[in-house]
């Protein structure tokens, strides 16, 4: 695996930490800037919206630049807005930096996925995608708990400075090591790439990705609440529970990268169809403390493994859209990450277990979409 893909994964780790660490920093931000907890929590939604809206626009813009310039530009913007966020006393400014950071993150990730696929042979592209996305899963395992701990110890601003500092080695290596021949795609225009993205196999993979990720984050957003209020576990175990979910997700992404080929093969179909049952088991056993930890590991592995395989599926079926395929894969995942917790919040009321049943419903919808696509065409899904 080219070393430069691991450099990109380092930057993705820092960006993933920034995206998810806000959950542990809300009280500190609210107190320091004299806003409500709800207002501080809206910073997470601002980031998700920035990712959704920014990915296609930034990918189209980045396609016109040499890859080194695009990657360095997006990562530099990400560092700068974190520095601004770390020193501002104005909540509106902080809110704006989260949106801009998300746009820069989306652009970087879209270009990085495209570059990763150009650096390896076709049979190794699933592995390249897994290595790149391992930065996100490691952020769940290490970055988010560390960010929360740093926020408690030194304040939320220190966590922002830490994210900016994490990006600096990756930025230096991008300037030094980005392949000189990795220029923007010469073939086709944005309009022709959009036509590729409208093809049914691509739309199927994007839809499945959004539903699976929505199911994942519907429960992940409430996992701490389930542990403390439903399972009656002490608050001190919550970081370990979240880390366990992250460990599972890392394993799932790694296995998907080593075994997947970008097709809707038998293993991926079986895993996708198993997801509703797995979430239902969690919903039914969430009152039992001894089962919650292994369930978190299992569902982290299954959910992120399927999600990673579907991203690779998008990249394979949309190979004729090298600039925009990664961007729309990013959009699909973030639509799910935004919609899942939103639907869970609307449905849960005072019972956090309802959030898990939202995960059951969304993953079941993904299974129905997959089976419906196979039935409609009368062919095996593996041919998509």
How would you describe this structure in keywords?
384 residues, mainly alpha, disordered C terminus, single chain
Write structural notes for this entry:
Helices cover 82% and strands 0% of the residues. With 384 residues, it is mostly helical. Helix 1 packs antiparallel against helix 7 (156-177), helix 2 runs parallel beside helix 6 (125-154) and helix 10 (223-230) crosses helix 11. The two termini are 27 Å apart.
Category by helix and strand content: mainly alpha
Distance between the termini: 27 Å
Mean model confidence by pLDDT: 82
The helix fraction, in percent, is over 70%
Give the percentage of residues in beta strands: under 5%
Order of helices and strands: HHHHHHHHHHHHHHH
Taking pLDDT < 50 over at least 5 consecutive residues as the criterion, the unreliable ranges are 182-187, 378-384
Question: Number of DSSP helices?
Answer: 15
Shape: globular
For the secondary structure, the number of strands is: 0
Radius of gyration: 20 Å
Question: How would you characterize the largest beta sheet?
Answer: none
Secondary structure elements and their pairing?
Elements: H1 3-20, H2 22-33, H3 37-62, H4 67-87, H5 91-118, H6 125-154, H7 156-177, H8 190-197, H9 200-220, H10 223-230, H11 238-259, H12 266-285, H13 289-317, H14 325-348, H15 353-377
Summarize the structure.
The chain is an all-alpha fold and 384 residues long. 82% of the residues lie in helices and 0% in strands. The protein starts with a helix and ends in a 7-residue tail after the last helix.
